[in-house]
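B., you asked whether I could sanity-check this one before it goes into the benchmark set. Here's the sequence:
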Amino acid sequence: MNRPEAIEKPRKSAGALWNISFGFLGIQVGFALQTANMSRIFQSLGSSLDDLPALWIAAPLTGLLVQPIIGHMSDRTWLGRFGRRRPYFLAGAILAALSLVLMPLSSTLFMAAILLWMLDASLNISMEPFRAFVGDMLRKDQHTAGYAVQTAFIGAGAVVGSIFPWVLDRLGASNTGGIGGIPDTVRYSFWFGGAALFLAVLWTVVSTREYSPEEMSSFSDGAPASEQQTIQALANRSFGTSVLWIALGICIVFAVTGWRLEKEVYLLGGLLIAYGVANAAGIVLARQGRASNMLANIVGDFSGMPDIMKRLAVAQFFSWSALFIMWINTTPVVARNFYLSPDPASAGYQDAGNWVGVLFAVYNGVAAIAALALLPWLARSIGKARTHILCLLCGAAGYASFLVIRDPQMLVVSEIGIGIAWASILAMPYAILASSLPQRKLGIYMGLFNIFIVVPQLLVATIMGSIMKAFFPDEPIWTMLAAALVMIAAALAMVRVQSMEGAH
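And here's what the prediction gave me:
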């Protein structure tokens, strides 16, 4: 039986592109407040520099678990007028707004760590479906524009979230002390962020109408891989890979004691063991013919990723490693090396924290501009993969410049290079992927792609502390050199993607 010819999706107007991605503005306000201020909050509540990576682990670990599950579920959701992805946007926004309101009221490190976990879980519930939403709503020739607009909103939201404590300080809000040692500038910023997040996501929920399953089926331009095919492919796999992952995890757990590594490395070993067990369980379920089982489908889809996704995953792994190094260490680096105030209780440290917010606003502002003005032109001129390579090298230069600049004001120049890289990281991989992924599984594949964002963050959180303590105690500036080298590795990994893009 011949498959009916696919119908092209309607072309969206500029206003529709705005509405589709506007919720990301609020989500990124929340993320920016988190990334720019959580180290500051933790240290204000008594955390040492050595403990920061462990406290940050909750965020990427939550994303690792939540995004594939939400992706799998949203692919299979249809609630009539409420749609497929929008229920997840709204539920996540409500929980994230509540977390932002409660976070600056934390009186203990434990409370702050729990709220960070809740905040990140909620942001991931909202964020993951947004990636698939662009692919759902737009035709292929608008994917680059759609992800560029989304990146512009991410940059704009991050500017607002990052710079707000600095603005409040200039307006006279207290930048020291406060409840639990958390300054009023941070408290008011988090409360503002909660309101902004909820209202921005609500705008997208109210202003957009999703295509029904019948409409999506008529738009499909290729036969989607069936669940039965995915399960059968998984059933044919051996348990050898599962055994190897479990064995590697056990070796790492024992190495923590034998080599006196940081305790956070236990988590890395535990995750490898857990993945090995999940992989083996997925194979067992597949051999039993459990085609509708979530675990079997997620494991099967992960093992059956398209080749271009696998190649992009390597570049994502390295580029997000560099980003996470920056997010954890920029405040300690700027406070110690540029403000000469490593003590979190000092006014100089809080001033450094505010300046880091400005620096983060700069790179996000650059990203917003580059996403609309630079990336589309570069992509048309030299291709998406080459554009990404060039932008990643700009980011590497920005990180490396931290080692030679002495004036904190000049770090704005560093952030320009980082901002160009950030724009490309948020747009180019998704633009490359969106047209090659099966539409019916867009949510789960976008969720699985997030694994290559989260795993490097976990590695940084578990391993970087051990490396710094062993070789560079109390010298966080060297983390920026590490970020530069890792970003160069990401650019080199994109060469393999470029060869595949050229072949197509």
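One thing to flag: The chain has a mean pLDDT of 84. Otherwise nothing jumped out at me.
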